[in-house]
Design a protein that fits this description.
3-stranded antiparallel β-sheet, 5 domains, 9 helices, binds zinc ion, alpha+beta, GIY-YIG endonuclease
């Protein structure tokens, strides 16, 4: 076996990512590169494991007489390229520059080390039950909630309320006419927050607000024993209906509505005029005009018999 130190470049064909290295140990011989020797890079080994050794383009760049020369050349190659996006080199001469290069390689399931780590953390958070019966995640959420609720400012508002107030203030500063997009965005966010803020009864913020409002209306009783809802209903009825609290009077010729408590004109007595009746032209029965056209005259049962 010859001793020929060398530098090499390995390119992962799929992505164009590349790795520079050198071989300068006692068994250095470019003839065995990618035959017996497949670099010492863990990142490349991982890729070989996943994609096979044929998914690389391999090049011996230069050969040297001494190991120092090979190492120096390698240093220069890496130094000039390690900050490039496609570089798979993680360190220069043993000094770690980018420890995460190997971690972004996806395994057969398409997961990187990061993903797997995330999965591990997720499982830990959600599957381990603490003494209080809560998962780590639930316990953390509970603690954060308690902290937020106990963090009262000088206005007596807790963290949630402070945040809500800030948001509202921010929103009020925006003119919906000139800044419609931002205004709508904030409104949309507030809506989502309210809809997602579900309590132990399964109610969102809007529903809780509506119930609160309803309760306070029902409990707000006036001296007549009416609650807010009933007062509101009564007022609306009065506004809409001109006949509210009026009575019919007549003078023998016309009917007139007179409001309760108002003076009654001379000659008028309480009650309506007797309604005028008309005879059916087929059977002669007398009745109010509205019934006549509906059940008699042209609709009279006797019409055909005559
Ligand atoms: Zn008739």
């Amino acid at each position: 076996m010859k001793y020929v130190p060398y530098t090499y470049k390995i390119t992962f064909k799929e992505t164009g990512e590349f790795y520079y290295g050198s071989k300068y140990g006692v068994d250095a011989d470019p003839e065995y590169f990618w035959v017996k020797y497949f670099t010492s890079s863990k990142t490349i080994h991982k890729l070989i494991e996943l994609h096979g050794k044929d998914s690389f383009k391999v090049e011996v760049l230069q050969t040297f007489k001494t190991s120092e020369e090979a190492q120096l050349s390698e240093l220069k190659l890496i130094r000039d390229s390690i900050y490039k996006k496609l570089s798979l080199n993680g360190n220069i001469g043993g000094i770690c520059i980018n420890p995460n290069k190997g971690r972004i390689i996806k395994d057969v399931n398409g997961l990187t080390s990061y993903d797997k780590c995330q999965e591990k953390i997720y499982n830990t958070k959600h599957n381990i039950i603490l003494d209080n019966g809560l998962t780590i995640q639930e316990n953390a959420t509970k603690k954060a909630k308690e902290t937020a609720l106990n963090n009262i400012d000088e206005n007596g508002l807790n963290s949630y309320q402070q945040c809500g107030k800030r948001l509202k203030n921010d929103r009020n500063k925006i003119n919906p006419k000139t800044n419609k997009r931002i205004y709508d965005e904030i409104a949309q966010k507030a809506k989502e927050t309210a809809l997602n803020n579900i309590d132990e009864n399964g109610l969102n913020s809007y529903q809780r607000g509506a119930i609160k409002q309803q309760e306070s209306a029902l409990n707000n009783i006036d001296e007549n024993g009416l609650n807010s809802n009933q007062r509101g209903g009564l007022n609306r009825m009065r506004e809409k209906n001109g006949a509210y609290d009026t009575f019919y009077y007549n003078n023998g010729k016309i009917n007139k509505r007179i409001k309760n408590g108002e003076a009654i004109p001379e000659g008028f007595i309480k009650g309506m005029l007797p309604e005028k009746t008309y005879p059916c032209k087929y059977c002669g029965k007398k009745m109010k005009k509205s019934n006549l056209s509906r059940w008699h005259n042209e609709n009279c049962k006797l019409k055909g018999n005559l």
